[in-house]
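S.,

As promised, the adenosine-5'-triphosphate run. Input:
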Amino acid sequence: MNVSAVLSVDHVSQTFGSGATAVQALKPTSLDVQPGELVALLGPSGSGKSTLLLAISLITPPTTGRIVIRDRLLWDDGPTGVDARAFRRQHVGFIFQQHNLIPFLTVQENVALVMQLNGVGAREAGRRARELLAYLEIDHRADMLPARLSGGEQQRVAIGRALANEPPLILADEPTAALDTDRGNKVMALLRRIARERGSAVITVTHDHRMIAGFDTVYHLEDGVLVDVQRNADPATAAA
Ligand SMILES: Nc1ncnc2c1ncn2[C@@H]1O[C@H](COP(=O)(O)OP(=O)(O)OP(=O)(O)O)[C@@H](O)[C@H]1O
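Predicted complex:
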């Protein structure tokens, strides 16, 4: 286990069901992710990518193994007493394939809400949300409802929401899958910028081989096994 890592996954496995119908969706898997690292989990359908991401987030905790995020032991073959939901809200950002924005709140309110859930006052949350939207170059849409934005713009707002509490770790489930290549590349470039400038580690599930040159590290999964680790020397240039 690496002490500087923002995330350590140590012999994490996942078995669904029991007895004759048990499925081992993820064999014991170990990996470390550093601050600012842009990581892809790549593999064919059913290879265990989402299972690993859901285990890391403790949304679906693993059957075995240890998970440490920012020096907190969150799972050790079972619960460790840490309130996973509260920890997640403060330290982990999520980006989904579909943006999941709240349709009756404006863009700014969608981002501010996440801050307010963590105890930030409404005015301050609004100010910070605006600032974040400006960083993402989407502040001109701040007062609109999500339905008025394009798919790429909505995904930018969803990224803003994931960043709202400045989490050290961002988990993304196929964030470019619903976008065309051009918009997908822009979202990837944004994730890279966030990792570089803000130091958040970003772990992205993908089965899109076109995108892999842009990641620092690519973990290849097959049938629930981590079969290969690919480290790209200069991903920003490779993806340009
Ligand atoms: N809750 C569950 N109960 C039973 N089996 C499951 C469950 N979730 C996943 N599986 C099985 O575990 C295996 C890995 O699934 P997983 O969703 O992790 O794959 P994936 O690589 O993310 O695939 P995709 O690219 O299609 O999303 C599959 O065989 C799947 O059917």
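Residues 181-198 form the longest helix (18 residues). The longest strand covers residues 23-33.

- D.
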